[in-house]
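Instructor's aside before we start: the two examples that follow are unrelated to each other. I chose them only because their records fit on one page, so don't look for a connection. First example below.
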Amino acid sequence: MARLNVNGTTHDVDADPGTPLLWVLREQLGLTGAKYGCGIAQCGSCTVHIDDMPVRACALPVDAVDPEQRIVTIEGLSPDGSHPVQQAWLALDVPQCGYCQTGMIMAAASLLAQNPNPSDADIDAEMTNICRCGTYNRVRAAIKRAAGGGGQPAQG
């Protein structure tokens, strides 16, 4: 049995200690926003926040999460989609296929919480999520827009 604080609600879940947090979130709690991509914490499709820091949930065993830690999924970032990063993503039509985008949004929200005015170099260093569609220019523009810098996607 594990106790998790997810999106402000405490949940008791019955899972083997080594079960990845991602599977508990998706299969037991029905929070399917975080996606399975690689299973080895490389792509970032499974990114959630734990105590305001981005974490790749596919490789984190549920028993490594303390019951006092606060887990936030894309569903808890903003129930109505009003988070500035979500709004910027919509305004600039960032996703192409969209599979990786919840992880991208969670990583971007964490970046802006830590650094409200990131440079291109800051964005490059912190946004390590992989997008097979290659929407990186739109991701950068949306992060800048969410930070208040306007951000227009590069043409081409």
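Example two begins here.
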Amino acid sequence: MTLTFDDILAAKSRLQGHIERTPCRPSRTLSEITGAEVWVKFENLQFTAAYKERGALNKLLQLTDAEKKRGVIAASAGNHSQGLAYHAARLGIPVTIVMPRGTPFVKVQQTRNHGAEVVIDGDGYDEASAFARKLCEDRDLVFVHPFNDLDVMAGQGTVALEMLEDAPDLEVLPVPIGGGGLIAGMATAAKHVKSDIRMVGLEPAMYPSFTAKMRGVNAGAPTGGATIAEGIAVKQVGDISYGVARPLLDEVLLIEEPYLERAVALYTNVEKTVAEGAGAASLAALLAYPERFRGKKCGLVITGGNIDTRLLASVLTRELVREQRIISLRIIGDDRPGLLANVSTIIGQLGANIIEVAHNRLALDVPAKGAEFDLMIETRDAQHTQEIMEALRERGYPPRAV
């Protein structure tokens, strides 16, 4: 079994008018930050906020009437389930989704809102998938795999077709890898249209399943951990998707968490758009490995925007800390009236904002007649923070970052 370019062209025709033809636009600011010429494909603008609709719908449209009547089932951490549930409801097909424990609440709720029966089982995708297979047999349903299916891969490949229509001169496509369905479809399409285009796979460092298979680690590399890229946190890459993608890839890179976090924050602050962790992986690659992409025309796909709002808030706040725009300072001084007022005045006069104050008189490393203050402040940038610390030092209140 293999995937052909004709399969992807057929999928494109099939999907016409049923999904969004999302834009692929240049980003001047991201280009300046990364040193590459960045083009962004906004698949987070699909109705269910992810590219997964493409493969799910392509599969559903090819079911027989008898299969549609029986209903479909899938295991998914979120985006495949939402795309499948949404389009199955449109087509009048019953759908059951098995989601692993720990799936962001927003994805669970949105899947239910599309009319699916949601079953929570398993500590990760692989366990959820095993339970879904059992349920599929028990209920005589049709299993729709999120990535290890040629029809699903063909649908995902339409992403690359659209990108190369909008930006024919693209030189590199860095693509996230979970189970491998997206990169299998995109690589098949892109290499056919432009044989010299560079295809780069991206995995979260905690889940290097494709990398392990490439290196012949039959039992798979150790995987696990709380990555923000849960959409591609897959312990075992698909055998069919791997077979399609592997000959077409130029390299596979592992992405550490801080780069994923920074990429999510950059999409929010620069492009004013929401990307989930997996959806920001291609930008994270440009941040983590700038020398590989510098000066190249790179096509980045925001594969999804379904991030839990609390996680997004945490990521954005952590980025402020990383940039030293939020910092905690510890000041030890004499416990006399006016000390905190004096320190606050210095900070306020320099244009910073005090977010939080903790006052400790009982710490044993502080003199009995002294006091310790922890102040969390918000500044414009790292340079502004240093100016404030220097001003406090000059006025007799030497601070220490904590």
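The radius of gyration is 25 Å.
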